[in-house]
Amino acid sequence: MRKKQHRKLNPKNKTFDKYYIINYLEMGKGWQAVQAERDESPQEAGQEDWDDWQETAGATAVCLFCNQHSVETTDLLEHMKQKHEFDLDRIKTTLKLNFYKQLKVVNFIRRRIHQKMCFSCHQVYATQDALVGHMTDSKHIQDIPDNTEWDQPEYYIPTYENDTLLFGLPDDEDEVTVSQTPVIAEETKVDIQNSILRDVHIRSSLSVT
């Protein structure tokens, strides 16, 4: 009886890429690179973990629309505002987004950009550059769709593993607002007529000899 042969998919065949879960990917890495890292030996993994720990302080956040990256999230938000006319602070204020809803919006946009799909008109483009060009020219980049599209539990999950931008999102709930209004003590009316200090004997017992 002939032994059944087990064959593996050709890694260069792009036909099956659409079935690969994008949450297994990392920014700037293809699935083959990620798979190679997962198949490494425990000794190599330990060394890699140590290297990652050493580089944590230098982790950079990546722009939603291009490859621009920055260690400071505020610098990256300013880049998106100036370069792509995407103002996350304005969107947060207009839509009254708390931290978790900001998280969903960012993950939603990441997913659509990965799919090369305009999140406003749902048109799909061949390249990310073509998509971003369309969204910029049409001002769709400023048009966040109705929350029925992005306010879904699935967008709690990052599109890319280790998306540093998510860690730098502002959380207004962490800010403690200190009231500047002075506190004025309530006036208390004292009934002098019924005070025990009107008793001569009590006053004499309290007097200092």
UniProtKB/TrEMBL annotation:
Residues 118-140 form the C2H2-type domain. GO terms for molecular function: zinc ion binding. Keywords: Metal-binding, Zinc, Zinc-finger. SUPFAM superfamilies: beta-beta-alpha zinc fingers (SSF57667). InterPro entries: ZN622/Rei1/Reh1_Znf-C2H2, ZNF277, Znf_C2H2_sf, Znf_C2H2_type. Belongs to the ZNF277 family. This is Putative zinc finger protein. It comes from Stichopus japonicus (Sea cucumber).
